[in-house]
Amino acid sequence: xxNLRLKIKSKSPYLIHLAVILFxxxxxxxxxxxxxxxxxxxxxxxIKPDRDQNFWFMWWVKRALLDFHTTPYFTPMLFYPxxxxxxxxxxxxxxxxxxxxxxxxxxxxxxxxxxxxxxxxGGAWGAYCLITYLTDNRRAGLLAGLVYAFSPxxxxxxxxxxxxxxxxxxLPFYTLWLLKFLKQLAPADPADLKLVSLRxxxxxxxxxxxxxxxxxxxDQYHLLFATFITVFLASWHLLRILFQKRWYNALGVALxxxxxxxPAVLSYAPLFIRTSxxxxxxxxxxxxxxxxxxxxxxxxxxxxxxLWQLQPFEPKFLxxxxxxxxVMALGLIGVIRQRGIRVWGLMFVVLVILSLGxxxxxxxxxxxxxxxxxxxxxxxxxxxxxxxxxxLIPASLVIAVCSGYGWxxxxxxxxxxxxAQSLKLKGSFRGWLENxxxxxxxxxxxxxxxxxxxxxxxxxxxxxVVEPTPAIFTSGQMEQPGALLELPxxxxxxxxxxxxxxxxxxxxxxxxxxxxxxxxxxxERSEIPPYxxxxxxxxxxxxxxxxxxxxxxxxxxxxxAINLTSDRLRSYLTYNxxxxxxxxxxxxxxxxxxAVYNQQxxxxxxVVGSTKNGCMYEDTQMLVCAVPPPAQMQPLLTFxxxxxxxxxxxxxxxxxxxxxxxxxxxxxxxxxxVLSFDAIAFARDRSLTLEVDGKAVTTLKTNPAQQSFxxxxxxxxxxxxxxLFSPEPAxxxxxxxxxxxxxxxxxxxxxxxxxxxx
Length: 758
Known about the structure:
Layout: H1 14-32, H2 48-68, E1 74-75, E2 84-85, H3 93-98, H4 100-106, H5 108-135, H6 138-149, H7 155-160, H8 170-185, H9 198-216, H10 220-243, H11 247-281, H12 298-301, H13 303-308, H14 315-337, H15 342-354, E3 359-362, E4 365-370, H16 372-376, H17 392-414, H18 419-422, H19 427-453, E5 483-487, H20 496-506, H21 545-549, H22 551-554, H23 566-575, E6 578-584, E7 586-587, E8 590-591, H24 594-608, H25 611-614, E9 617-618, E10 622-626, E11 636-639, E12 653-655, E13 660-667, E14 671-681, E15 686-692, E16 695-702, E17 707-715, E18 718-725, E19 747-756
Parallel strand pairs: 5-6
Antiparallel strand pairs: 1-2, 3-4, 6-10, 7-8, 9-10, 11-13, 12-19, 13-18, 14-17, 14-19, 15-16, 15-18
Helix pairs in contact: 1-5, 2-5, 2-20, 4-5, 5-6, 5-8, 5-17, 6-17, 6-19, 8-9, 8-10, 9-11, 10-11, 14-15, 14-17, 14-19, 15-17, 23-24
Protein name: YfhO family protein
Transmembrane segments: 12-33, 86-107, 114-134, 159-179, 200-217, 223-243, 250-273, 317-336, 343-363, 388-410, 431-452
Keywords: Membrane, Transmembrane, Transmembrane helix
């Protein structure tokens, strides 16, 4: 309710607030039991990738600020050697900075758990303060705190380990300061104008601005929620004043709110500009989603069924459903019966609609009816969100407010019930009941039932464990400075979250990483030609790492069109400061197939020779080998995209896939180099255009007879992308009656090499 009386107290009830915080802390411990007994090696997250990513973000903020003295919004530690921008990702800068003492003293896992408890307890306390201010009823505040912080709508973020989402503490406090600030700017009741004070305008305006800044640097979703609440409540308050024709006061509200949000706008603007550029430039994947998953409408009434698939007749389902329906009923009663809070009811309806996704889903059945996600998917930047059901987080705050008001109405009805008189009680107990005992007793029972009825589902304790880091990363055996090249490079993407967790211990740059929106140059499924990729970072497809990235599909062969010698590979790895090769034998818990393992082992053997003599560590999980220095720095040529595997008949040759193929080249110094190769045109004469980094160098004529070519190139130090293109359409042998081969073929290459010009 915005139209409430102004109450300025000279002293805060510290002991009461301390008791409230301890109450919510006890509930949080109960909900997560026995986590408090294993704070160092367990978390509530049972989905590991997001948990490990949040570990990494906390660690990286510490490294960036304390060690590198640089912005945390770019890191050279992932997607090495180019690094990646982090502006688009939720780094939780606020929480990471505030928890630095905990991280420095106790480490990452305790810091994660600390911030998790701060989010739950702080969020519940904030909701308590908000509803207590609005209703002057502490029991309603306790209920609101439980509904907001411990509702089932918060459970997915808990179990996914999405620490940034579970930072619930800022939003209710921001809403509280915003409401107080609006009342000081211009009370809706003109009779309260005499209570307006410049001192309190400055205090509440400053608090509103400060908490909005904290939200802005916590998570983009929470910033979106705070923006929604600001616009909704400020507009509602402004309209009420305009209807009273108080034009001067309306102008003051508009200016005051503008000044309150200005610090957040100015401080977040550079990051917002970077984020908007990245979401619209095509640098990252999943930034323009046509289908955005949303909430099941059934989760509004029976959230535990839609979230955890409980059956309707299970005892747990019944208790959860009845408790949540009671909360919803209290919220509805509050909106209907309590004067002036319909703005909260309207806000709840809008938030629920926003959460429903692209189409309406009801208890698992997709009706196909278009919802808000259909429109959001067409709005730039907004269509980069992954899950619209997260709008239920501010909705839980709103229903907490509404249910708090409903509880106040319920208590007023209890006062008309003469329980002590009906039971013919006497003495002090009767006096207690007649005063406020019935309300206290009833609220105590309801809070207890809510806690029991909304407690999380039992989870296997083993699912909460944080797996230990491999001993090789903590033992100090890896003394050679430099980055890690971790194989297989094309493993399923989520597994790379574990690499980020290992990095917290070894502190070395790694070749990949797990981020919610992949840099487009790292996405193997991308159809964009490598040299056309709109990336400001390192382009793997334009480097010799492309061959390693696609090792499984390109098939490293003992006899191939390019002879990858140890010295050439060592030259490239040494130039880029790769110190170790690490081969993981398991892909997300599943053992690598023999074919994949042997293919990756061939890469390592090309670099170090025999793994028995050239590697320093091996166990059942991994193989670690140091990169030896080259005898002499040499150029390197490898296959990139656009090639079939090495031919099995004849050996030492590869067909270009269709009309074009790419080669990745590395040269250790600026100068002249010679690209040499043999080429055979398939079925007819063909032209061959050679481009370097998108610029045409020469056009050659080929025919079905084998021909040798040499092309002199002026190349600068580093990586280059060579494109081979034949404008004539490729032909299929099966259509020409030559063989059963159905591949489109144009040119066959042999003896490809890049050397220093003599």
